[in-house]
Design brief:
The structure is a homodimer of 159-residue chains. Chain A is of the alpha+beta class. Chain A has a single domain, classed as Winged helix-like DNA-binding domain superfamily/Winged helix DNA-binding domain (Arc Repressor Mutant, subunit A), CATH 1.10.10. Chain A has a two-stranded antiparallel sheet with strand order 1-2. In chain A, strands 4-5 form a two-stranded antiparallel sheet. In chain A, a hairpin with a 5-residue loop joins strand 4 and strand 5. Chain A is globular. The interface between A and B is large, with 92 and 92 residues.
Amino acid sequence: MRGSVSPANSRCSIARSLQVVGEKWALLIVRDVQRGHTRFSTLRARLEVAPDVLADRLAKLVELGVLERRGYRTPGERERAEYHLTAAGTDLLPVLAALAAWGDAHVPSGFGPAAIFTDAATGDPVELAFVRADGSRLGLGDVAVVRGPGALEAAPVAP
Amino acid sequence: MRGSVSPANSRCSIARSLQVVGEKWALLIVRDVQRGHTRFSTLRARLEVAPDVLADRLAKLVELGVLERRGYRTPGERERAEYHLTAAGTDLLPVLAALAAWGDAHVPSGFGPAAIFTDAATGDPVELAFVRADGSRLGLGDVAVVRGPGALEAAPVAP
């Protein structure tokens, strides 16, 4: 998965992230593990994915540090694997929330949101938003993207 | 790209979003167009992608309503195409910002962020964060995900 970014893209954190999770199954696996579906058999049934594809993606996500593999044993059976999010995996929550918000807005199912992100303490819905250092929110039209120190060219990003 | 989600996933906005943009090139194209690189030749050079792959992805993004194709003509040459973000394309900015923040934290290039999201009015950096209705921010550990009306099962998402 890694190593196939062009030199011009190797400095871009978006490109590097997509090398890790820019594949449909990877983020759907992270979504399901985040929701507590940690076992191979459960993931396979929920995702309706071929077992070899699922095994491959799980191994890559472990190798990349997004998931951690733990053994468990039901009495009388062989040891099986379950998967848990690492800190890096947990940090993908904003990516999932951004995709969920975009999907609800632009490719709605017609049934309303399938997942709602809430304040765990109160159950009230929360939103993903751009915020200034003082905590105030910005609309998307007020956000600009400029080149940082890691950019290969020094000029501003905008045309 | 559409139509390959299982029934269990068709209600999930994350899964539906990934049907549209869950492929590495699609989001890198959106990233570059967002930065003002609107022409086929420029995108091809920047992304180092095979022309047939780029043409295919651009056509799909137009068909899916993320990009809009516009003709332009340099005097004495044939008409060529440039691509602009639709409203749905512009709304992908939080997805890009979430991927950028994750990449900077978990797969850093060693050179610092390549792109910095800023307040267009002041140039000050801004962050993508979960916020409550009253505008206060939550840490990732304070966010829960619960099933919404579009979920196929009515039980809470968490185990």
